[in-house]
């Protein structure tokens, strides 16, 4: 099994576990990002306060709205990203060794090369998986208020209906599962509707690029210190990986958060009538309207929640991924040794 495949599978596994742990925070954060009301019009709710509000008004299930496509998207994104990251990384390492043979460099991959490798992997990932995240964003931001006309008609009809008829009428409210969201997106924008927000998302490949550049740099320095102290440079604990992943994600999130808000605004269901603040015709239009109607505050809505969610998710992902890679390589090595021993002499 190749290193690229091992990294891809381990990344997918780590991403799924991290997603399950942090998903309610992600749902709340997406709602905060897509809230188009200026700060002065209402009091901003804290993360936990908004989470309890969702549970009270819509039930526990809404905190996990879109979980199934999100898990698929996470597995696909992490698998694709780590697979191509390892391929591009191998090529960068081979190029570095070749330069060393010619008398240039020390044979290691530099910071700029790490950034380029992460950026290329991110672009491939975005282009392949963006449709999944459009669906997830729609499902995370869907609330009971999304069907006002039907709800209002039910409330006006209840006076003339028996309790049994009211229950049956409520049961007829259209569902909002994955297939319904796909039909809705296709009906609004055709096939290209699934690539809404792809432009700011492509720019946002700088987030994992910065994240992995910081992670690789910190890890390299840690291993170098271990080697200088006489310890095994590969003897990095799961807790240390957790902390390095958290620090790397924190730095990347602070820098790129405004792009994430714009992306979520574009991928959420657009209001086709009423307040012009809620209508976006593209990335530039969204940015200009956010500045005009909300100020720069709008670009940082929910940032506190995102930092907690993304840092925790990244830390768990790195820790689980490294342990899965280590365990898989150990099993493969052990299997190869056992196979050699079992051969007749």
From TrEMBL:
Transmembrane segments: 109-128, 197-215, 236-260
Bilayer topology annotation: Multi-pass membrane protein
Organism domain of life: Eukaryota
Alphabetical UniProt keywords: Membrane, Repeat, Transmembrane, Transmembrane helix, Transport
One GO term of the biological process aspect: nucleotide transport
InterPro entries the UniProt entry points to: MCP_dom_sf (IPR023395), MCP_transmembrane (IPR018108), SLC25A32-like (IPR044712)
Pfam families: Mito_carr (PF00153)
Main location per the UniProt record: membrane
Annotated compartments: Membrane
GO cellular component: membrane
PANTHER family: MITOCHONDRIAL NICOTINAMIDE ADENINE DINUCLEOTIDE TRANSPORTER 1-RELATED-RELATED (PTHR45683)
Family under the similarity heading: Belongs to the mitochondrial carrier (TC 2.A.29) family.
Name of the featured protein: Peroxisomal nicotinamide adenine dinucleotide carrier
Annotated organism of origin: Fraxinus pennsylvanica
Organism classification: Eukaryota, Viridiplantae, Streptophyta, Embryophyta, Tracheophyta
């Amino acid at each position: 099994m190749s290193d690229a495949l091992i990294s891809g599978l381990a990344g997918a596994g780590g991403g799924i576990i991290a997603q399950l742990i942090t998903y309610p925070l992600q749902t709340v954060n997406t709602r905060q990002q897509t809230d188009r009301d200026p700060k002065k019009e209402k009091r901003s709710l804290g993360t936990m306060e908004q989470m309890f509000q969702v549970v009270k008004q819509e039930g526990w299930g809404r905190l996990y709205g879109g979980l199934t496509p999100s898990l698929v998207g996470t597995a696909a994104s992490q698998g694709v990203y780590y697979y191509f990251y390892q391929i591009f990384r191998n090529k960068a390492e081979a190029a570095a060794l070749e330069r060393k043979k010619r008398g240039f460099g020390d044979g290691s991959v530099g910071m700029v090369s790490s950034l380029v490798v992460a950026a290329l992997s991110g672009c491939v990932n975005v282009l392949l998986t963006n449709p999944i995240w459009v669906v997830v964003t729609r499902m995370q931001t869907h609330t009971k208020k999304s069907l006002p006309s039907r709800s209002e008609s039910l409330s006006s009809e209840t006076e003339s209906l028996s309790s049994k008829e009211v229950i049956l009428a409520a049961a007829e409210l259209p569902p909002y599962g994955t297939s319904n969201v796909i039909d809705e997106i296709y009906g609004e924008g055709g096939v290209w509707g699934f690539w809404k927000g792809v432009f700011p998302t492509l720019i946002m490949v700088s987030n994992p690029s910065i994240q992995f550049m910081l992670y690789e740099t910190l890890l390299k320095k840690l291993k170098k210190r271990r080697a200088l102290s006489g310890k095994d440079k590969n003897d990095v604990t799961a807790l240390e990986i957790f902390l390095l992943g958290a620090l790397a994600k924190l730095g990347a999130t602070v820098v790129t958060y405004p792009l994430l808000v714009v992306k979520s605004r574009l991928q959420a269901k657009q209001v086709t009538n009423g307040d012009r603040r809620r209508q976006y015709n593209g990335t530039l239009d969204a940015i200009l309207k956010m500045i005009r109607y909300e100020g720069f505050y709008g670009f940082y809505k929910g940032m506190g929640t995102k930092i907690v969610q993304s840092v925790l998710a990244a830390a768990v992902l790195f820790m689980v991924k490294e342990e899965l890679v280590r365990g898989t390589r150990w099993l493969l090595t052990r299997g190869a040794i056992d196979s050699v021993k079992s051969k007749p002499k």
